[in-house]
Inverse folding.
């Protein structure tokens, strides 16, 4: 049983449940002059048809909550039962959650707009754009500048290039290391620095999207408009900056551990993953404060006016050819962004994203090929499982024996599959060095083959026992 996998899936499920629970409850609540994603006058909230529609979506949301909870529990149980089955169940659950949420968000707005049409509640709207010039003039005081992320990205980029070319800094850190430890350290550092650079870029883009979006005019009081826009943009800016700092400190710790040990142990991976999860939770928590504080500010205003642009959301998504923006704040969750589907680029991006998601799902749903094939052709030996293959000559074998299990060592998967009892592909051990593993079951003993530059371990299966594999490779 892979305890680390259980912890990762458990934390991921918890975060997903909390995020969806915090979002979906707002759909049926009257907020910002809207319910079910459409504007409605407060005095119409007691309309029988509206109450019936809201009650219908409350039931659907309750079903969605149950699906979240039971799916989280079932997927955790599956990590104990069978890894291959777990992947299928987990991906099926994820696709269902995403699809059902999209269904709720699209059709609640469609049904609400249809009700407004039937009851004659549609507003003619206006093409007039209201601007608070005082708020616009103080835009630089409202947010933290996105360039605060640039130093982090430059540090990541510098050390990434230095490690890639074996530059002055990396040579100084790895001085005295044996060749195997040098390669291990290089691989780990490149991975950590690349992940750090991508995450820092993500924080920068999020900072730009939320910090530079158009100021909203809520009322004629400039102080209220200023404070509402400031708390929105400033807190998002702070959330992105805090997240970037926490990830940077986490990466600095991991790189320090690598420089000292030339290796990462399970406790290091646990600290790394835990710190990244905590940073994500902090960002989400800080961003979550935005809505609460903005509501407190707007509660002090009088005669708040909301622009009724429901016509552009009538299909369940935003489509306004007159709006130059590609991304707009979501109707159902102001922390989210949605595409303006009137833009051709939005259609192309969504089509690409759908293909990527479907491709990922299909790949994950394909059962893992755990069968290990051992073939001999004169002096050549071929060991293959799925996409992984090891070939060598019998004359290259330095040692061949049966062992009770893998050595008591710390292992890193460099290119392979490592889930529970299944370990197939390329691995590295702190003491063992380079390994090609073809372990597809708990069956023991293992066949160990010692070559010049690596060791190969093979488990038996229902077709071949370890003893039979040993005889094939030895040629006896």
């Amino acid at each position: 049983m892979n305890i680390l996998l259980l912890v990762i899936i458990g934390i991921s499920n918890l975060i997903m449940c909390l995020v969806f629970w915090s979002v979906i409850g707002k759909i049926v609540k009257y907020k910002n002059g809207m319910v079910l994603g459409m504007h409605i006058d407060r005095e119409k909230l007691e309309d029988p048809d509206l109450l019936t529609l809201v009650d219908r979506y409350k039931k659907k949301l309750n079903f969605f909550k149950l699906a979240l909870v039971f799916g989280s529990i079932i997927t955790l149980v599956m990590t104990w039962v069978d890894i291959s089955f777990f992947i299928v169940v987990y991906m099926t659950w994820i696709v269902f959650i995403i699809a059902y949420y999209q269904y709720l968000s699209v059709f609640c707005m469609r049904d609400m707009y249809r009700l407004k049409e039937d009851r004659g509640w549609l507003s003619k709207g206006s093409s007039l754009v209201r601007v608070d010039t005082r708020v616009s003039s103080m835009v630089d005081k409202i947010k933290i500048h996105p360039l605060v992320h640039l130093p982090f990205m430059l540090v990541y980029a510098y050390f990434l290039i230095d490690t890639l070319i074996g530059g002055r800094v990396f040579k100084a850190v790895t001085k005295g290391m044996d060749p195997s430890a040098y390669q291990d350290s290089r691989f780990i550092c490149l991975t950590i620095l690349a992940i750090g650079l991508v995450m820092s870029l993500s924080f920068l883009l999020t900072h730009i999207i939320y910090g530079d979006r158009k100021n909203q005019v809520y009322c004629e009081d400039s102080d209220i408009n200023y404070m509402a826009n400031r708390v929105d943009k400033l807190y998002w800016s702070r959330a992105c900056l805090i997240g970037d700092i926490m990830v940077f400190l986490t990466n600095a710790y991991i790189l320090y551990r690598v420089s000292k040990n030339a290796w990462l142990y399970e406790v290091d991976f646990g600290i790394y993953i835990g710190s990244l999860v905590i940073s994500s939770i902090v960002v989400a928590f800080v961003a979550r404060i935005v809505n609460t504080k903005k509501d407190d500010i707007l509660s002090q205003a009088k005669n708040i006016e909301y622009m009724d642009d429901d016509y552009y959301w009538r299909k369940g998504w935003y489509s306004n050819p007159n709006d130059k923006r590609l991304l707009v704040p979501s109707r159902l969750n102001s922390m989210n962004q949605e595409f303006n589907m009137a833009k051709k680029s939005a259609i192309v991006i969504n089509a690409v994203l759908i293909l990527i998601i479907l491709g990922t799902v299909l790949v994950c749903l394909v059962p893992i090929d755990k069968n290990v094939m051992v073939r001999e052709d004169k002096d050549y030996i071929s060991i293959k499982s799925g996409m992984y293959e090891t070939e060598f000559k019998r004359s290259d074998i330095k040692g061949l024996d049966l062992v009770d299990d893998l050595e008591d060592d710390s292992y890193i998967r460099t290119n392979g599959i490592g889930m529970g009892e299944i370990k197939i592909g390329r691995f590295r051990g702190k003491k063992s060095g380079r390994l090609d593993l073809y372990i597809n079951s708990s069956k023991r003993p293992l066949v160990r083959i010692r070559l010049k530059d690596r060791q190969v371990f093979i488990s038996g299966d229902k077709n071949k026992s370890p003893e039979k594999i040993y005889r094939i490779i030895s040629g006896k």
